[in-house]
Specification:
24% of the residues lie in helices and 25% in strands. With 248 residues, the protein is an alpha+beta fold.
Length: 248
């Protein structure tokens, strides 16, 4: 039987989601807890990677077991085995062929920034105190939404078949002390959201024009775009699937 784990984690102490040699990762911690609880080597597979220091308010991973679980009891026991910065929010039975990575129809990210030093936001938001023109940024997000090829926002030497992504939603909101960038798409390239944020901040500071942004996107060259925003402000915030894959 196959189950989906709905996972939240603070990524500060981890070298990302995916297992790596000589590094502590979220996937490794969950695999260890699953294997301990089920008393057999068990591995989970996530909807996608998050980089070192990046967080998730919703990451989805699947794992297989031989017998049906008491989801509430299993969730309680699994959380007891996991470190304080990883939490299982829900466990759901899915179809045997359901796949956390390949069946996802949409993924969403949020990038959080705060304008003034705040000890309660350290590690969970990027301190960016310089003023920005939010209207210019919003105009830029409209251009990004209309685009398809995002190679200019991808990490170099990324092994993908296509750099095309379909943006479903994109928004930049501002309050008295914060900015939040939100974006949803069918898929994302490695480093794409942080590159977007860094580039939009340059536009907001009048260091880059909308015409410049269009030229950057057309070029497909990562070095032409803005720098990557730091990882601590980035959250994988939602992963969506077809409703019919769930059995409970």
């Amino acid at each position: 039987m196959r189950y989906f784990l709905d996972i939240a984690y603070r990524g500060t102490a981890f070298h990302g989601w995916q297992i790596q040699p000589n590094a502590i990762t979220v996937q490794e911690e969950i695999n260890r807890a699953l294997s301990t609880l089920l008393q057999v080597n068990t591995e989970c597979l996530g909807s996608g990677r998050t980089d070192a220091g990046v967080h998730a308010s919703q990451q989805i991973a699947h794992f297989d077991v031989k017998q049906k679980l008491d989801s509430d009891q299993f969730q309680y026991k699994l959380n007891a085995l996991l470190p304080h910065d990883i939490s299982i929010q829900r466990i759901r039975l899915v179809k045997d062929e359901a796949h956390a990575r390949f069946d996802a129809v949409s993924r969403s990210y949020q990038y959080h920034m705060h304008k003034h030093k705040n000890p309660f936001k350290t590690g969970l938001s990027y301190l960016f105190s310089r003023p920005v023109d939010v209207e210019r940024i919003r105009e830029a997000t409209e251009l990004i939404k209309s685009w398809e090829n995002f190679q200019a926002f991808s990490k170099v030497h990324t092994d993908v078949k296509t750099f095309n992504c379909t943006i479903h939603h994109i928004d930049w909101s501002e309050s008295n002390d914060s900015h939040v960038f939100s974006v949803s798409a069918n898929r994302f390239l490695r480093g794409m959201v942080r590159a977007m944020v860094g580039t939009l901040l340059e536009i907001g500071q009048n260091k880059m024009s909308l015409t410049d942004l269009e030229l950057v996107l057309k070029s497909g060259v990562r070095s032409n775009a803005g720098r990557s925003a730091p990882p601590e402000g980035l959250f994988l915030s939602a992963v969506e699937y077809p409703k019919d894959i769930y059995l409970d």
